[in-house]
Amino acid sequence: MGILEKIAEIEKEIARTQKNKATEYHLGLLKAKLAKYRAQLLEPSKSAAAKGEGFDVMKSGDARVALIGFPSVGKSTFLSLMTSTASEAASYEFTTLTCIPGVIEYKGANIQLLDLPGIIEGAAQGKGRGRQVIAVARTSDVVIMMLEATKGEVQRALLEKELETVGIRLNKNKPNIYFKPKKGGGISFNSTVTLTQCSEKLVQLILHEYKIFNAEVLFREDCSADDFIDVIVGNRVYMPCLYVYNKIDQISMEEVDRLARRPHSVVISCGMKLNLDYLLEMLWEYLALTCIFTKKRGQRPDFSDAIILRKGASVQHVCHRIHRTLADQFKYALVWGTSTKYSPQRVGLSHVVEHEDVIQVVKK
Q1: Burial class (CB in 10 A: 0-12, 13-18, 19+), 242
Q2: Do 293 and 334 share a domain, yes or no?
Q3: What are the pLDDT digits (tens) for 269-289?
Q4: Inter-residue long-range contacts of 129-133, CB under 8 Å, 24+ positions, other chains counted
Q5: pLDDT in tens, 221-242
Q6: Which residues span the domain enclosing 107?
Q7: How does it assemble (predicted)?
Q8: Helix (H, G, I), strand (E, B), or coil: what is residue 181?
């Protein structure tokens, strides 16, 4: 019995088990087994030598965005519109067969956009280059899920399931659970909140399934058994995702309005070039990037060359970006912009900069 059959068997078992107080331990164990088999499935086989052309693309620019979607939803057309890269687009499925990178220049930042081949159902099991597509998606900062407006609901549910299977969690925060395996002393379990979805017995059962008999577990929020399994496995990726509904020129106005009001959703039409600027704005927000401009003493700020950093970056990060020895020779910095009480303000290394601040570093 192969891993795929075992997974199918467990999924059937979960589907036919009623959810109630009596069966929650049984379900918890099944979920743990399922996660274990799926992890085995994702490990590359030792015997198979590397064949086929290279798939992973070198990371470049300030951020990386992956385009994921079913075949023929307009990913390549979108890439060609947004960037200067021409990705072959045609009206048949699987036009794009490898990963094609492009660069969006927006607000001074270079954002790498990856056009990935279409994902089909069963991609997590390795159908249609699905595994490589998903592996590249794991390394990106934001996922753009391209959906066709006419059949968006079905596609969205299937894609979410595929990504969930390989450990990508969309628009979710990491569960606030402290977990540390130990050499001895059994399992010590504590929680700072009342748990409604998980209990001590269930936690012990799941840990035993993973052959962990000594560990420290502390729940700081009310999490489910699935969240706890994610913490044990530890290779989950939590990333923001934008659901982009393409081809809105084929559906009614009411339907467009309904899709646009859903959380994390943007409606566009690549064919008619509708709403693409709003999509870029949303993407910038989800990437959480900030632009910082530098200024030399007695000169005007250099607005042509921005330093791109993540939101919440401090003056120290800016110094490292300019030169790695600059932080050691740092005396103070003068900052103009929204992060200061008055301009210019004299600040230290720990001062957090905001979007479009101007900074002048004074050395010792």
Answers
A1: buried
A2: yes
A3: 877 777 788 888 888 888 888
A4: 129/55, 129/97, 130/162, 131/42, 131/166, 132/55, 132/56, 132/99, 133/68, 133/99
A5: 888 878 888 888 777 888 888 8
A6: 61-85+96-169+235-284
A7: Interacts with RWDD1; this interaction confers protection to polyubiquitination and proteolytic degradation. Interacts with JMJD7; this interaction is direct.
A8: strand
Output 46 or 257, whichever has higher pLDDT: 257
Same domain, 77 and 128: yes
Q: Counting every residue, how long is the chain?
A: 364
Closest CA to 319 of 290, 348, 355, 356: 348
The whole-angstrom separation of Cα 358 and Cα 343 is 10
Higher pLDDT, residue 144 or 149: 144
Of the candidates 77, 81, 277, 243, the residue with the CA atom closest to the CA atom of residue 149:
243
**Widest CA span in the chain:** 74
Instruction: Answer whether 113's CB lies under 8 Å from 104's CB.
Output: yes
Q: Poorest-confidence range of 28-42, 164-178, 253-267, 302-316? A: 28-42
Res. 49: pLDDT tops 50: no
- Closest Cα partner for 132 from 50, 11, 235? 50
Q: Comparing C-alpha atoms, which of 192, 168, 310 is closest to residue 240?
A: 168
The pLDDT value given to residue 21 = 76
Q: What's the whole-number average pLDDT of the chain?
A: 78
The label of the residue with tokens 């965005």 reads 65
> What is the H or E stretch that residue 207 is in?
helix 200-209
Structural domain contains residue 146: yes
Query: Residues 306, 291: contact at Cβ < 8 Å?
Result: yes
Distance in angstroms (rounded) separating the CA atoms of residues 111 and 64 = 6
Q: Is 49 within a domain?
A: no
Token pair belonging to 280: 């870029």
Phi and psi angles of residue 292, each rounded to the nearest 5 degrees, phi first: -125, 135
The CATH number for 297's domain is: 3.10.20.30
Does residue 122 register a pLDDT over 60? no
